[in-house]
User: Which sequence fits this backbone?
């Protein structure tokens, strides 16, 4: 994922935005799993992925936002992300929340994520975020 960001942003801007992405990503995962509702996928008792949901609103409409979903590289392409996403959407619906939201990057590295979300009925809204080193 971050290699794809660096390819799009260029090394200078990428280094400014993500100077220590490994440490920042590890901290983000820990915080999400501590502070949000999260579900873990395991294979033979070993955690291999998770999904976390934030409960919020968009213009007064209750929303379950899939804040983060991840699967260990060795277990990707095995349907785990789809099952995790399904679990999150089922929980959002079970709570009576009428809208599920998820976001991802528009770069090539996030193409598999976008395909997964579209297979699960999500509609993408094209957004662009621009960066410029000064």
Assistant:
């Amino acid at each position: 994922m971050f290699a794809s960001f660096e390819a799009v942003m260029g090394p200078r801007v990428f280094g400014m935005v993500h100077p220590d992405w490994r440490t920042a990503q590890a901290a983000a995962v820990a915080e999400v799993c501590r502070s949000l509702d999260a579900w873990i996928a395991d294979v033979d008792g070993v955690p291999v992925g998770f999904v976390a949901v934030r409960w919020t609103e968009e213009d007064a409409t209750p929303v379950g936002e899939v804040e983060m979903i991840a699967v260990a590289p060795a277990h990707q392409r095995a349907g785990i992300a789809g099952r995790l996403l399904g679990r999150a959407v089922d929980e959002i619906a079970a709570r009576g929340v009428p809208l599920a939201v998820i976001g991802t990057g528009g770069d090539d590295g996030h193409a598999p994520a976008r395909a997964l979300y579209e297979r699960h009925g999500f509609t993408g809204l094209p957004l662009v975020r621009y960066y410029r080193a000064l």
Q: What stands out?
A: The chain has a mean pLDDT of 93. The longest strand covers residues 46-58. Helices lie at 2-9, 11-17, 21-35, 80-94, 111-119.
